[in-house]
Amino acid sequence: MLLKERTKIYDFNFHLVWVTKYRKNIFINKRLSNSMIEILKNIADGNGVTIQHIEVMPDHVHMMISFPPDMTPSSVVKSFKGTSARMWFKKYPETKSQLWGGHLWSPSYFMSTLGNVSKEIVTEYIENQVTKYNGGRPRH
What we know:
The chain has 3 helices and 6 strands; from the N terminus they run βββαββαβα. It is of the alpha+beta class and 140 residues long. The chain has a single domain, classed as Transposase IS200-like (Alpha-Beta Plaits, 2-Layer Sandwich). It has a 4-stranded antiparallel sheet, covered by helices on one side. A two-stranded antiparallel ribbon has the order 1-2. A hairpin with a 4-residue loop joins strand 1 and strand 2. It is elongated, with a radius of gyration of 20 Å. The two termini are 36 Å apart.
């Protein structure tokens, strides 16, 4: 999804997954999973992150997100995990006792980029720019 801001246009898409501490089933019904979805959407809105798809499973979260190129993937993850845990425990303090050490999320996560085109197509596009710019004549 192409996103436009005042000084940049970007199309960064990421698949982000993280799990609860010890893969504990915390989001065990629709009410609890929807509550976490609402928390994550509020965090995204406050941080300039676009959530394209989201699913909260009993012990993990899947999201397809996009964020501006001046944000780092690790800062986005830190914001989602840290803020959501604080907001969750404020709303559902009883779940803290289900988690050893009182941590909602495992420290790890998985993130991968999603592309609309392959590396080969981008390489070909870049290599053909000189030819197009020079009126069909290669640079060399």
